[in-house]
Specification:
The protein has about 120 residues and is an alpha+beta fold. The protein folds into two domains: about 80 residues; about 30 residues. Helix content is about 30%, strand content about 15%. The chain has three helices and five strands; from the N terminus they run E-H-E-H-E-H-E-E. Strands 1-3-2 form a three-stranded antiparallel sheet. A hairpin with a 6-residue loop joins strand 4 and strand 5. The longest helix has 19 residues. It is elongated and about 50 Å long. It binds zinc ion.
Length: about 120
């Protein structure tokens, strides 16, 4: 692995596919940060894997890391909220995906992912 960048980039997200990566890249660029995608080019070398299944790393300059994480948290919350119902950690009741707080005990949706 060679390092040619003079600026230090950090990985803030791993997109499931190139389409998602470009969506996120566009979102982050609106906030003035330089966004680099890693992994996209691998698909042509591998030949057998369609681009859709190749994970793409999204990196931003170190100084933008916090802002990027914040935006990506919101992005993930939106994506998850649109996709699935959630279970309240406080009382165990199921809540519809669109609910930000538990209908039963008003507990907020907990975050339960590593990292
Ligand atoms: Zn609850």
């Amino acid at each position: 692995m060679t390092r040619t960048a003079s600026e230090s980039f950090v990985r803030v997200y791993r997109a499931a596919n190139a389409t998602e990566a470009h969506l996120i890249k566009g979102m982050l660029e609106q906030y003035g940060m330089t966004v680099r995608l890693f992994g996209e080019g691998l698909s042509s070398g591998l030949g057998e894997l369609p681009a859709e299944v190749v994970e793409v790393e999204i990196r931003v300059p170190t100084g933008f890391r916090q802002l990027a994480r914040q935006l990506l948290d919101e992005y993930e919350a939106d994506a998850a909220g649109a996709a699935a119902d959630w279970r309240c950690a406080g009382c165990g009741e199921e809540n519809p995906a669109g609910f930000e707080a538990c209908w039963n005990c008003r507990g907020t949706r907990g975050r339960d992912r590593p990292g």
